[in-house]
Amino acid sequence: MRRRAGYNAIAMVCCAVLIFPVYWMVATAFKQPGRVMESRPRFFPWPISLGNFRHALSTADFGGYATNSVLIALSTVVISMVVGLSASIALSRFRFPGRRAFQVLLVLVQMVPGAAILIPMYLMFRSLGLLDLPPVLVLTHLTFVLPFTIWTMRAFVDAVPPDLEQAAMVDGCGRLGAYVRILLPLLAPGAVSTAIFAFIHAWDDYLFAYVLMTSQQHYTLPVWLVSFQTQEGVDYGAMIAASTVFSLPVLVFFLLVQRKLVAGMTGGAVKG
Length: 272
Prior knowledge:
This protein folds into 2 domains: 1-49, no CATH class; 60-267, MetI-like fold, CATH 1.10.3720. Helices cover 74% and strands 1% of the residues. The protein has helices at residues 2-29, 51-58, 62-93, 99-111, 118-128, 134-159, 162-170, 175-186, 188-204, 207-212, 221-226, 236-267, and strands at residues 229-230, 233-234. Helix 2 packs across helix 12.
């Protein structure tokens, strides 16, 4: 009992340390604009004010930036899941020349930092006349998301016994029908966990969105956050309120799928 109580206390302390920055951001966003930079910390924003939010949402084209972010993030998730799931099934269920080399290549691609290929990708897209196109930004995100999706989903596919698909095909299902009716429902937890990674990667990207998109009408929300830093100074209240708004979709999405996410993280580590 004492050991369990000790573990629970350590877990609570770790959770408090992780949650406190998020709480401080939200609490600061609800402070009155003149009290954001006070030297004396106020842990509870009283009286509550929405002035920072009103200023943040009225300083720039928030709706356009939000639309761009949602479209780019969802496009990245959908394409990565369709292509990644198909490739993971092929790697797990079929044997073909170059299979091992392809798996090694997936690991090597994930080791390359994004900043290292930013300039080569910019020069390539500029020579092709493809700068300032949202589909190019989606393609750039897929460069980093697809290797992780394929590698992760392959572990989930390996955990599903092939006998289930063979039994479905014996009962009259084709190969595609066995995949859709048998394999895909079993892969739902893993698909959710990898989809969250793809969504967060595309949603949080600032570097590629700022470099590859040259017009403001194609900017995303991370670039919008930088607009609060001007030559006259930094509007910290509006920036923190904008950061709160920016983090809200990811938080809501995570709360909706947290059960499947935990099942996916634990299920992928066990091979059945």
